[in-house]
């Protein structure tokens, strides 16, 4: 193995390598004093940084969220989507209140009386249409010539 780059050595010190990658690198470290020295330097740097600025505590809600995501990692995508949609319904009382409100809205909409409609006689509608048609530009000056009383063309 050629000497690895500093990113790989840093990942090794941080425990970010897979077991097989770590074993391979450890084999190289057994034979390469220069890389062992670099790993020693990275470990000392990591210890100094950790001592100087301890990591802030992770909020409990973030821990729960991350643990839940890790637990669901093997679930099918549709199950994860459903659980994410239902995330806000932590309380059965909230779900029941929403369901009741939805049912009441549907019942109110169905049982509401239809508005009263005013019925107009057909003759009145036809007369109004005839008067309106006379105001249109194409009908101006045409009048009723060419038409019989019963609507047939002469």
Q: What does the radius of gyration come to?
A: 41 Å
**Mean pLDDT reading:** 79
Number of strands: 0
Which parts are unreliable, with pLDDT below 50 for 5 consecutive residues or more?
Answer: none
- The N- to C-terminal Cα distance equals 105 Å
Query: Helicity level, as a percent range?
Result: 55-70%
Structural class: mainly alpha
Number of helices: 7
How would you sum up the major sheet? Answer: none
% residues in beta strands: under 5%
Instruction: Give the CA-based shape.
Output: elongated
Short description:
The chain contains 7 helices and no strands.
Describe this structure in words.
The radius of gyration is 41 Å and the shape is elongated. It has 154 residues and is mainly alpha-helical. It has a domain of 47 residues. The relative contact order is 0.04. The termini are far apart. The chain contains 7 helices and no strands.
Provide keyphrases for this structure.
elongated; 154 residues; mainly alpha
Fold topology:
Elements (H helix, E strand, L loop, with lengths): L5 H8 L5 H13 L1 H20 L7 H12 L5 H9 L6 H20 L10 H13 L20
Helix pairs in contact: 1-3, 2-3
């Amino acid at each position: 193995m050629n000497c690895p780059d500093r990113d790989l050595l840093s990942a090794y010190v941080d425990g970010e390598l897979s077991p097989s990658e770590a074993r391979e690198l450890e084999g190289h470290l057994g034979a390469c004093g220069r890389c062992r020295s670099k790993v020693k330097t990275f470990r000392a740097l990591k210890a100094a940084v950790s001592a100087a600025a301890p990591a802030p505590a992770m909020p409990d809600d973030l821990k729960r969220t991350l643990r839940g995501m890790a637990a669901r990692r093997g679930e099918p995508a549709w199950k994860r989507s459903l659980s994410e949609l239902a995330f806000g319904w932590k309380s059965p009382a909230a779900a029941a209140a929403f369901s009741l409100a939805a049912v009441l809205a549907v019942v109110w909409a169905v049982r509401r009386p239809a508005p009263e409609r005013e019925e107009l006689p057909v003759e009145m509608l036809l007369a109004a249409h005839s008067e309106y048609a006379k105001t249109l530009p194409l009908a101006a000056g045409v009048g009723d010539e060419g038409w019989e009383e019963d609507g047939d063309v002469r």
